[in-house]
Amino acid sequence: MTMLNGRKCVFTPNDPLDIKAFFESRDIEIAEKEAALAEAKKQKGYVEKENADRRFNYHIHKENGDIEAEEEHDVPDDTVLLGIRPEFIKIGDDKGFEAEIYSALPTGMETTVKMLIDDFVLTGVSFGGVDYEMGAKTKIAFEGKEILLFDRKSGKLIADGTLKIQ
Q1: Do residues 114 and 122 make contact, with C-beta atoms less than 8 angstroms apart?
Q2: Which end of the chain is more exposed for a tag (fewer CB within 10 A), N or C?
Q3: 48 occurs within a structural domain
Q4: In b/e form, how buried is each residue of 10-24, taking b as 16+ CB within 10 angstroms?
Q5: Helix (H) or strand (E) run with residue 117 in it
Q6: What is the CATH number of the domain that holds 31?
Q7: Inter-CA distances, 146 with 43, 88, 91, 108, 126, Å
Q8: Does residue 16 lie in a domain region?
Q9: 149 close to 159: Cβ distance less than 8 angstroms
Q10: Count of domains for the chain
Q11: DSSP notation for 10-74
Q12: Which residues form the domain of 116?
């Protein structure tokens, strides 16, 4: 898979996964929901709820503004979204993607670090007393078995697993 403007990585699910079957099942479920809604709208007295379920509201943080789920249209069927907690971003690794330190906020025992990869902003957490210089280059990698893979079209969690940079 690719991420962050074509950088290559490998997502390995913790449990066996048939991604093709997942997408087929998702498409059937979406079609059934749309058909049921269309039928309900034909019924006398139908009222659309103002607080109806909303789509998965992800946002992708970019230097010049976020990309919000509600702003995206015609999302490709096989597009996925990775959910990576800040503590799963290993900062200062000798291998990995090159990133630029964008900001750092020490908060006692940890420092919240924002990093730029092209115009994408990633947030990591560094534990212990580490000083970061704005604009400095560093390498990042991903650790942990709890990286989440979401279907971008439906918002459903597909799997959790590991993410390795190629």
Answers
A1: yes
A2: C
A3: no
A4: ebeeeeeeeeeebbe
A5: strand 110-117
A6: 2.40.50.140
A7: 44, 8, 17, 25, 18
A8: yes
A9: yes
A10: 1
A11: EEEESS---HHHHHHHHHHHHHHHHHHHHHHHHSTT----TT-------EE-BTT-PEEGGG--S
A12: 2-37+61-165
Report the C-alpha gap between 118 and 22 in whole angstroms: 31
- Phi-psi category of residue 48: left, alpha or beta, with phi > 0 → left and psi -120 to 50 → alpha: beta
Give the pair of three-digit tokens for residue 69: 């789920």
Residue length of the chain: 166
Share of the chain above pLDDT 70, in %: 95
Residue 55 within any structural domain of the chain: no
Structure tokens at 93: 């690794």
Residues 155, 121: Cα–Cα separation, whole Å: 21
Whether residue 53 is contained in a domain is answered as no
Contact 124, 115 (CB under 8 A): yes
Q: Is residue 157 within 8 Å of 147, Cβ to Cβ?
A: no
pLDDT tens readout for residues 103-146: 999 888 899 999 999 999 999 999 887 889 999 999 999 999 99
Amino acid at 14: N
Contact partners, residue 42, CB within 8 Å, separation at least 6: none
